[in-house]
Amino acid sequence: MKFTLQKTCAITGARAGLLETKHGIIETPVFMPVATKGSVRGIPWQTIHDLGAQIVLGNTYHLHIRPGEEIIEKAGGLHAWSKWPKPYLTDSGGFQVFSFARRGKAKIDDSGVTFKDDLAGNTHHIGPKESMQIQRALGADIVMAFDHCPPGNAEKAEVEIAVKRTQAWAEQCLEISLKPHQDLFLIVQGGRHEDLRQESLEGLISLNASGYALGGVSVGESREEVDKVVQSMSKYLPADKPRYLMGVGTPHDLKVAVSSGIDMFDCVLPTRLSRHGSYFAENGKVKSITQKAFTEDLETPLVSDCACSTCQTFSRAYLKHLFLRSELTVYYYLSVHNLHTLINFSKQMRQAILEDRFVQFIAEKNII
Amino acid sequence: MKFTLQKTCAITGARAGLLETKHGIIETPVFMPVATKGSVRGIPWQTIHDLGAQIVLGNTYHLHIRPGEEIIEKAGGLHAWSKWPKPYLTDSGGFQVFSFARRGKAKIDDSGVTFKDDLAGNTHHIGPKESMQIQRALGADIVMAFDHCPPGNAEKAEVEIAVKRTQAWAEQCLEISLKPHQDLFLIVQGGRHEDLRQESLEGLISLNASGYALGGVSVGESREEVDKVVQSMSKYLPADKPRYLMGVGTPHDLKVAVSSGIDMFDCVLPTRLSRHGSYFAENGKVKSITQKAFTEDLETPLVSDCACSTCQTFSRAYLKHLFLRSELTVYYYLSVHNLHTLINFSKQMRQAILEDRFVQFIAEKNII
Fold first, then answer.
1. Which residue numbers of B are catalytic?
2. CA distance A137 to chain B (A)
3. Which chain B residues contact residue A328 at CB under 8 A?
4. Residue of chain A nearest B296, judged by CA positions
5. CATH code of the domain made up of B2-267
6. In this predicted complex, what is the ipTM?
7. What is the enclosing helix (H) or strand (E) of A108?
8. DSSP annotation of B263
9. How many Cβ pairs closer than 8 A exist between chain A and B?
C-alpha cells in the first residue's frame, strides 16, 4: 500500500491524498460505506458503485460467525465472494465483542474476549491473534488491529487498562503475517482523556504501522466531546500515513474530521437513518420525511441542490407516501440520498483542498 | 389505444401484437410487474426500466386509501407522481374489496361494496362508478372495470350472481367518461363453470370494449382448473383486441396463457417469492435458496443459462448467506432474477411467434 499526500490546507491541516491498494486507488478524504455482513444494508452493489464509493467496510465478528472466513477465503476473499472488486477494509471485531462485554455477555482478559454469539450461542474467543487470522482469510486490503474499546462513559481507570491492552495487542497483531496485499492500521484509544489519548498515540506510533485510526470515538459521548478529541488528536497522527476516524458520521462530523486532517471515515448512519425515514438536509442536519409539509409537496426534491438520483427524480410527497406505506423502495431512495451526501461532500472537500479553497468552501457550504 | 395483431401461431393460437398507448408502445405477450401502491415491492424504478418492463400495474383500492387519488391527479397522474413514464394499468379495486367481503368485513349489494379500510378504519363505498372516478383521476392508460370476483371455491349460485353483477357493472363503467388517453378493459367472470364463463364472455363482448380480461382465475382453484379455464376461454375473446389474464403467474402459467392466445399477465409472485428466499429455476419451478447444497456453492449462479444481473454476478453461496442474515439486498437480487425470468420469457415467446417457431421454442424450453 502506498499513501501519497497530495496537498495540505495551510490554514486547517485538511489533506488530500491517494491511497494505492491492490484493488484500486482511493482518493482521500473518503467516506466508506459499511457492508457489515458482506452487503451494504439494502443497497445493491451496482448502486454502491454508481454512487462513487471507493472502498467499503466488512466486519470481522459478523463474517466470522456467518458464513465463516473459510468459505470467504475459498471464494478468493471478500472481493471475489461478494463481487465488490474495489478495496475493502475489515474492522477487527473488537467493537462488537466489547459490546457483548458491556451487556455482561463476555469475559475479557489480556488474551482477548470470550463470548457466546447471538445466533447459535456457541462460545468463541477472539483476541489479537484470532482477529488477524480471520482478517487474513477475509482478505481485505486494510485490516484493523484488535483493540480494547471501552464505552464513552467509562471510568478513567478502565480507559487506562484499555490503552495498555490496545498497545500490547497492537504489538501482537503486528507479529501475525498478513497476505501480501494487506496492510494493518492501529487504533488509538484513550476516550475523552487527553493524557491517555496521547499515551496511546505515542505508543502506537512507535510501532510504525501503515496507517492510524482514532477509535473509541462516538461511543456515547457528546458531540462536543467527539469534536474535541478529533480536533486535538488528529494533528499528532503521522502526517505521512492515512488517518482514519472510526464510526462517524454526519456532514458535521466529516467537516470537523477533514478540517482536523483526517482522511477516512465510515458509518452505518446513511442507511440506518433511511430505515427511520430520515435524511441529511441542506445544512447537514438530520430531518424526517414524515413532516407535515411534505404530504402535498409534489414539486420539491428532498434537498434542492442535491445531484443524487433520488433528489433528481422524486418529490417529497411521493417519498413520504412510500415511507408511510412501508414500501421497501423508500429505504433505497433515502439511502441513495444519504450515501451520496457523504460521498459527494468528501469529494467536494477533496477538490477544494486540491484547489487551495478549502476554508472558503467550508464557509460557503454552511454545514451546522 | 390501438392494438395491432402482428402474428398468430397457426398451431396454438399464440399471438404477437403491439398495443399503442399515450405513454408508449407495448409489445405483447407482455408480463406486467405489480406496483400496488405506486412502487414495485423493493425494486427501484431504474431497475424496473433496466429489466425491460413495458407497463406496470397500480391498484385502485390501495391508492384510493393512501395517498388518495386527488394528490396523484394533482401531480399529473400516476406516471408523473411515481416517475414511471411508461404505460400504467390500474386494477379496479374489485379484487381487494371482495377480499374484505370474504373476511366478513364488507357488505356487498348491487351498488358495490361497503367496507372499512384496514388503516384508519374509515367506511368506504366503492362500486363501478366510484372505481371509474378514482381510476380516471389516477390516469393509467388502461383501466379495469369494477367486477364481482367470488372466491375459487364459491357455490355456483354465487358465481352466477357475480356474472350478472359484473355485466351490469361493466355497463355502468362504460357510461363514465375517462380521460382521452384512457381505455377500459372488461373482466370475464364465471369461475370454473364453463357455461357461466360463456355467459359472461358473450355479455361483455356485446359491449365492445377496448380489451378483455379473464378474472377470477387463480383465486384458490387447482392449477389444472386454472389451465382449463384459460385454455377453453381465451379463444372466445375477441381476436382483434388485447386479452389479459389477471393475477398469474409462473413460467408455467405464462406458457399456458400465451399458448392459449393471451397477450398480457401480471402477478406479485416474482417479488413475493424473493421475500421467502424462492426463485424460478431452469424449468420454471419455484425452488428455495436455502437448500443445503447452496451453502458451499461458490461457482454456480442461481440459474445457469440466465442473463439477469443476479445470475451474471453472484454465487448461490453468497445469495444464501444474504438471505440467512436477512440482508435486504437479497430480496432485490432474487426479485431481479424472478422478474427477469418472466419478462424475458414473454419476450422470447413473442420473438418465437414472430419467427414462426413458437411450438418448437416451447418444446425446447421445457417449462414444466
1. 91, 266
2. 16
3. 41-42, 328, 331
4. A71
5. 3.20.20.105
6. 0.97
7. strand A106-109
8. -
9. 105
A→B contacts (Cβ < 8 Å), by residue, are 37-46, 62, 66-67, 71, 74-75, 81-83, 295-296, 298, 309, 313-315, 317-318, 321-322, 324-325, 327-333
The tens place of each residue's pLDDT in chain B, 368 residues long, gives 999 999 999 999 999 999 999 999 999 999 999 999 999 999 999 999 999 999 999 999 999 999 999 999 999 999 999 999 999 999 999 888 888 888 888 899 999 999 988 888 899 999 999 999 999 999 999 999 999 999 888 999 999 999 999 999 999 999 999 999 999 999 999 999 999 999 999 999 999 999 999 998 888 888 898 999 999 999 999 999 999 999 999 999 999 999 999 999 999 999 999 999 999 999 999 999 999 999 999 999 999 999 999 999 999 999 999 999 999 999 999 999 999 999 999 999 999 999 999 999 999 999 99
Contacts of A298 (CB under 8 A, 6+ apart): A315, A316, A317, A318, B71, B74, B75, B81
Portions of chain B given CATH number 3.20.20.105: 2-267
The β-bridge partners of A88 are A56
- Using CA coordinates, name the residue in chain A closest to B75: A298
Mutate to test the interface with A, among B329, B331, B334, B340 (most CBs of A within 10 A): B329
Distance CA B341, CA B334 (A): 11
A356 is a catalytic site residue: no
Q: Which of B44, B324, B330 sits opposite A332 (nearest CB)?
A: B44
Compute the distance between CA of residue A327 and CA of residue B63 in angstroms, rounded to an integer: 13
Of A44, A74, A324, the CB nearest to B329: A44
Compute the distance between CA of residue A119 and CA of residue A344 in angstroms, rounded to an integer.
Answer: 37
Please choose, from the candidates B82, B86, B43, B85, the residue with its C-alpha nearest in 3D space to the C-alpha of residue B62: B82
Kind and range of the H or E run holding A264:
strand A264-266
**CB contact burial B280-306 (16+ within 10 A = b; e otherwise):** bbbebeebebeeeebebbbeebbbeeb
CA angle B96/B150/B117 to nearest 5° reads 25
Residue A238: CB partners within 8 Å, gap ≥ 6? A205, A212
